[in-house]
Write a structure and sequence with these properties.
The protein is of the alpha/beta class. It has eight helices and twelve strands. A seven-stranded mixed beta sheet has the order 4-3-6-1-10-11-12, sandwiched between helices. It has a three-stranded antiparallel beta sheet with strand order 7-8-9, with no helix packed on it. Helix 2 packs parallel to helix 8 and helix 6 packs across helix 7.
Length: about 325
């Protein structure tokens, strides 16, 4: 009888299901819950995985623009299959705090950058110097990714922002047919966005240097596209990047992620944006190696992101 509260997860492979459920004792969810006795809410008295009937877990994924999509998961929040992602921790936190049905809607795929594939609408082209040469980096809808200043760009079969367009369209397809995915649901409200990304941008100085501006544009674009002007936004940093000794592109991205939740810099976002520093939560490895598949990394980051979202909602 209540509107479904929708929380949309976007990003790249950090958001995908990479935490191992079984197998290596050091990293598996089974070992963490049944031997280390962590996350007691995950297991019932019979030793089976709990199922939440107040939180729907849905993942749609496709490469590029609208149309090429597939439903990867659609069930009540539980552990099924061999992997988990951040949505598990996020879903439990939000489900506990919100007196309404919750939909965790993930629309993402791996190996995508904010500076190119996920570039939000309205982003303009810009010039940036690399190794003594000045390049023009593509604005939204342009192609290729960059070209040397003074030369004519030769478009390729991909444009800046095409993955953003596709991921948004796939999420909207779900919301436009809500009852097909969330049994009994008729109305919804997009209450928040959760973003864990940045790995691909750290290999491209031109993209890393614009990460803060692009991230700020992303918040505005998502709110507009989902007609959710007050929706909250939680961003998680890359787990391997340490504040005190971050350098190069990783420092640019880390600084950008903390900047958007700085009320002195973006007063219009005060109380609406939070940044989760994940290095203390990571059990090792790195974003490009999917944190070694350690389920505790994905659980702890998800729980922290969910807690951050709850605090924003209370405010």
């Amino acid at each position: 009888t209540k509107k479904v509260k929708v929380f949309i997860i976007m990003g790249q492979s950090n958001t995908l299901d990479m935490g191992k459920v079984k197998g290596d004792k050091a990293v598996s969810l089974e070992y963490a819950t049944k031997t280390e006795k962590l996350y007691p809410f995950m297991v019932d008295d019979a030793g089976k995985w709990t199922v939440r009937k107040d939180v729907r877990n849905l993942h749609v994924m496709g490469s590029g623009g609208p149309g090429k999509s597939g439903v990867k998961r659609n069930d009540w929040l539980t552990v099924s299959g061999g992997k988990i992602g951040i949505e598990t921790g996020i879903g439990h936190q939000l489900g506990n705090a919100i007196d309404a049905p919750v939909l965790i809607l993930k629309s993402s795929i791996g190996n995508r950058s904010l500076g190119w594939d996920l570039l939000p609408p309205g982003s303009e082209s810009y010039e940036y110097e690399v190794n003594g040469k000045t390049y023009v980096y593509a604005g939204y809808g342009q192609s290729p990714d960059k070209w040397e200043k003074g030369t004519e760009p030769k478009p390729i079969g991909w444009t800046a922002g095409i993955q953003y367009v596709g991921d948004v369209a796939r999420a909207k397809d779900v919301l436009n047919n809500l009852g097909d995915y969330y049994p009994g649901a008729t109305e919804y409200e997009v209450a928040g966005f959760l973003w864990w990304q940045g790995d691909k941008d750290r290999y491209n100085e031109g993209h890393a240097a614009m990460y803060e501006k692009n991230l700020n544009n992303l918040i505005a674009a998502l709110r507009k596209d989902f007609n959710a002007p007050k929706a909250k936004f939680v961003c998680a940093t890359l787990g391997q990047t340490i504040k005190k000794n971050a350098k190069g592109n990783e420092k640019l991205i880390l600084d950008a992620m903390f900047a958007i939740s700085d009320a002195t810099k973006y007063p219009e976002l005060e109380g609406d944006v939070a940044t989760v520093y994940t290095n203390p939560l990571s059990m090792g490895s790195s974003s490009n190696a999917h944190y070694g598949g350690n389920a505790k990394t994905y659980m702890d980051v998800g729980l922290a992101m969910g807690e951050a979202m709850n605090k924003l909602l209370k405010n």
